[in-house]
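Quiz preparation item.
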């Protein structure tokens, strides 16, 4: 495997109409979860991506497994669990500027994940372990598992890549801050947004955020700046990459996961940091042009033709 990740994937329902969801009568369903969004992005770009998780032994669990497998991700380390259901969530589009997420994932199958779900060899043979701040928010056993997976990676020289993905609806602020900072201390590459830097350190300047993560031990920090692109800082090298201009953002959710896929893809292809960050910005931008979290992720051909057609 090039990249292995562990986390929850759910069925996502979106009302066909905008406005308060209580009036919605029809919903479309998709599959989404930060970790599989990134793994699918990598698989579409031709990399070997593997997922560790649990889903329920139910119709939604089966649907997630066949979808993620169909996108080219290895699901051999995903278990279907009896006694707990697959999580679901809703994306309520009240108005273009007001999108609300409603989770129905408490005590879900994935929240039962625990250290014994980690196959050491599976992580040991991979190049990167990709962790997001969502998995440790799911339960205490998920927190234990996250740290255990990172210990296995460290022991075997596998690089740890971390997207803080703060989800304040899922856990208490103090526990979130403490846990995410502990994960950051063990991570090699960190991909925060400005609001995550603010949440963790109470500072909102990208250079300061990068510096603080370096002080915790990170070798590479890439701060996502949305429409302003991204700032990267690594081994005495730093710089700013302009965002790719998008005419109309259809759905911003999933952009961060696409960004991670683009960056890891660039690093796996041995691009220079600057080029890898540019690929991250491009993939992140492409995700926002399509409804759904993974549907806008490009394969190689789509990525190249998008770059050719973008105004430089
Ligand atoms: O930070 P992003 O918008 O890239 O993440 C979106 C994902 O995993 C989405 O797919 C959802 O399932 C989640 O984050 C989550 O649990 O909030
Ligand atoms: Mg994010």
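Solution:
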């Amino acid at each position: 495997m090039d990249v292995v990740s562990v986390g929850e994937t759910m069925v996502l329902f979106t009302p066909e109409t905008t406005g308060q969801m209580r009036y919605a009568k029809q919903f479309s369903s998709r599959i989404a979860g930060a970790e599989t969004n990134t793994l699918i992005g990598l698989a579409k770009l031709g990399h070997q991506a593997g997922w560790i998780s649990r889903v329920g032994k139910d119709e939604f669990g089966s649907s997630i497994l066949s979808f993620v497998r169909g996108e080219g991700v290895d699901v051999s380390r995903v278990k279907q669990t009896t006694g707990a259901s697959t999580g679901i969530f809703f994306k309520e589009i009240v108005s273009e500027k007001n999108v609300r997420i409603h989770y129905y994932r408490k005590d879900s199958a994935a929240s039962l994940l625990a250290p014994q779900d980690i196959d050491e060899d599976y992580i040991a043979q991979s190049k990167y372990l990709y962790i997001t701040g969502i998995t440790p928010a799911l339960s205490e056993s998920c927190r234990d598992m996250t740290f255990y997976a990172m210990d296995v990676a460290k022991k075997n020289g596998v690089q740890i890549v971390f997207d803080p993905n703060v989800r304040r609806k899922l856990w208490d602020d103090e526990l979130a801050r403490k846990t995410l900072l502990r994960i950051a201390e063990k991570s090699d590459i960190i991909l925060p947004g400005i609001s995550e830097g603010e949440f963790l350190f109470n500072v909102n300047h990208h250079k300061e955020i990068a510096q603080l993560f370096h002080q915790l031990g990170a070798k590479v920090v890439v701060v996502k700046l949305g429409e302003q692109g991204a700032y990267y800082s690594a081994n005495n090298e730093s710089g700013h990459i302009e965002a790719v201009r998008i005419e109309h953002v259809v759905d911003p959710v999933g952009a961060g996961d696409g960004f991670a896929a683009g960056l890891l893809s660039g690093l796996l292809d041995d691009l220079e940091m600057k080029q890898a960050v540019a690929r991250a910005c491009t993939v992140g931008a492409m995700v926002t042009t399509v409804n759904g979290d993974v549907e806008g992720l490009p394969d190689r051909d789509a990525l190249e033709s998008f770059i050719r057609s973008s105004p430089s």
